[in-house]
Amino acid sequence: MKLRNFLEIDFPLIFSVIILSIFGILFIYSSGVTSAGVLVSNEYIRQIIWAIVGLIGALVIAMVDYRRFYDLSIYLYLGTIALLAYTCLFGRLVNGARAWIGVGSFGIQPSEFAKITTIIFLAQYLDNSKRNRNSFVRFFFSCVIVFVPMVVILLQPDFGTSLVFIPILLVMTFIAGMSLRYVLFLGACIVFTAVFMVLPLWQSYILRQSMPSMNILNNTKFVMITVLALGIIAVIGLFGFLRYKKRYFYWIVYFTAIIILSLGVSFFSHKVLKDYQIMRLIVFLDPNVDPRGSGWNIIQSITAIGSGGFMGRGYLQGTQSHYRFLPQQSTDFIFSIFSEEWGLLGGLLVFTLFLIICLRLVRIMKTTSDPFGSYIAAGLSAMYIFHFLINVGMTMGIMPITGIPLLFMSYGGSALTSAMTGIGIALSIYTRRFQH
User: Fold this and answer.
1) Considering the entire predicted model, what is its pTM?
2) How many folded domains does the chain comprise?
3) Which of 142, 280, 361, 401 is 20 to 30 A away from residue 61, measured at CA?
């Protein structure tokens, strides 16, 4: 990259990232201070190192023409799939998941980097297949590209990280001009799956009374009969559409397929999910179901955010973190500490910085003349927005606990460096947005 190009990089984007990273370091330090004022953790030192390495890496990537990743995308994608499979089999067991590989105190989480390589490879496929007029085929193979790493990550099991791939798929395929009905189909399947999963839990743990209409969702015989009946209806509808070309037959197949997939996935999810993952869904509905167990994190997080008020208690003056009431306070709940000590004003500042990042990525997506770069920017914006909304919503009690970090602020080398890598690619696209 020439000096002229370097001076044209997206400074609002990189400055927002730097400020968020500084906030992260400050409050990771705060999370390591006890009520007696004693520092008991050196996590902030590691975060400083990772932030510097990540920032340098982002600037180096910005100097590289992102279009070089076009032909390399398949190798990057397959390489991370191989790493994910290796991690699933031989990785370290941390918090019930084999998501880490490494030696001694050094380790990486391949799933964080899989998000970036999947975005690049999916962007390459969408660009390479744009002449294909069959929208269904493009959408199908896009789903395959995304679901392969997602399923491997689920097997670790890391439910939170796997969820990030869904908005990436939906946003990128929508921007690529896929038929809206396919995007809505997948979105509807996800919503109905969540509803079918939550309803039996709601009646068992919160309503605390048996309702036959809810119990049947966990009944193997009922599920099989329902799926079979809907399958017959779908086959009849498909035959009618192919034979008579009537649109209402198509929509019969469309909606029955949504119910069949949602019911089937939710049923198997109840069989596959771990007890602690099920409890996360339950305490999301009502944290007071288990206030000293699974609901503890949400209750303490809401307490911390609420106690911060408008101006906050002041830096290093928080009580929830310093008295160690809040678990995972340097990772999942870093925003809780931040809001307790810097209040609503500090929270609004973080919201503003993430808004700037997302708006700049959207601008890159809209102004670049290269579809490959535009698709990458769309995937990155979906990833950053989803991380922010889920993590902050989780700390406020309006989203279930998923273990998704607040990018640039939460403690963790893999999450920080992969997020910085995405920013570097975005900067590379921005400086070359008018090139063909």
Assistant:
1) 0.90
2) 1
3) 142
